[in-house]
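Onboarding guide, step 5: your first structure request.
Type a short instruction followed by the sequence, for example:

Predict the 3D structure of this protein.
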Amino acid sequence: MESLFVKILLISAFFAQTCHCRPSSPAIDDRDAVGNHPFDLLIFTQRWPITACYEWREHNKDHICGLPSPNIVWTIHGIWPTKINTIGPAFCNKSAIFDVSQLSSIESQLEEHWLNVEKNKPTDSLWEHEWLKHGTCAAETIEQLNTELKYFGQGLSWLEKYSVGSGFAAGGNIQPGLNYSLATLNKALYSFYGKDLAIECYHDSKTHLQILNEIRICFNKQLELTDCDGIVGLERQATRGGAGTIISNCNAAKPILYPDTVPKEYEMENNDVESKAAYYSVVYEVSQSSDGQQGEESQVADEFVEVILV
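The system replies with structure tokens like these:
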């Protein structure tokens, strides 16, 4: 009898172990966690179309550009869900199909403000790319962005309210056609938005110029402005008193060209852009540090003096 009792206990323990190890069916919350693509920020990226054209033409001499009219306005590149210190998520719905007819009510506005600078490609190719790569990820989590019309409509609304052109004009009278220090650009943006934005430069390998390319404005998932922390490739460089934190891939020790025209093809081929750029006014912001020494990259700024060299 005792032997039978022991056998029963062993068999019971075996089945208990088997049941414990077998994977159970996932709960609804678990399925949601697996199916979703979590992110922390929405990066609303505005591009300077003149620089985008410059870069596009640099890649191939046969590339042609489509620029807005007037061409000195900031346009939309995209709204990018981003996980801090990570690239992406991206292409969150593999079965999604872009349907441009859903944008018929705002298509004329998109052609003006969310235009494709790369004119060799179809007009709506940028919209298709942005929706499939980024919009499908935003749509999973945020109701206000869960259709093509909502996603692109939100971009237009943000551009109207948070245009970089308006920020530069109000924050520091920053105008195209000049060179600026990174500190000057950052100070102007911070004074207008009240948040840390990210400043992205295009580094031209031929002329060794750094050219203002994109400004990235960040929102949380409640669509509220927030600091642009943790963007891969755009790191915190310095904290300046009263001017926020500099987040950028630009070299703070060199001027940043904010161009007002696209250099002609022969100028690029003959490397004449650099000499042309030398005629731009250079605006540097010099900070007075706490130890009395002046330096553009000083992290303690008690006063700011603009020195304009022509």
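Each response can be followed by summary notes, for example: Confidence is low (pLDDT under 50) at residues 4-35, 265-310.
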